[in-house]
Amino acid sequence: MVTDYGLDALAAVIHETAIEKGFWEGPKNHDKIGNKLALVHSEVTEVLEAIRKNKGSQQVVEEMADVVIRLLDIYASMMNGGLIEHSLDEELNKKMEVNSSRARLHGNLF
User: Fold this and answer.
1) Is residue 40 part of a domain?
2) Block means of pLDDT (10 residues each) for the chain, length 110 residues?
3) pLDDT value for 54
4) Which phi and psi angles does 88 have, rounded to 5°?
5) Which of 12, 48, 71, 77 makes the best surface tag, with the fewest CB within 10 Å?
6) Is 15 a domain residue?
7) Whole-angstrom Cα distance, residue 90 to residue 87?
8) How many of the other CB atoms lie within 10 Å of CB of 79?
9) What domain count does the chain have?
């Protein structure tokens, strides 16, 4: 699905499901977006926990999928609400080009 349609389209599908399941009831404001972003952090922590507790590949990847789903859901909500206007597909491609031309570790110590 991702390679056929891109992240913008995938985000729209994910967001529609989240709306149908009641995750976006009430006003969409900065507080709601902030809370949703905090949940992304929570999902990242679950990835780390799965790794640390040796829960296996499937659990680690499942938690990573949750991170991606939450991020794309937030992105689509912000697009629909007019809070952002740039395509994630386009910006991701630009960022990948920039990263490919950077020096090794580009200033980071590790």
Assistant:
1) yes
2) 80 97 88 94 98 98 98 97 95 93 78
3) 98
4) -65, -40
5) 48
6) yes
7) 5
8) 18
9) 1
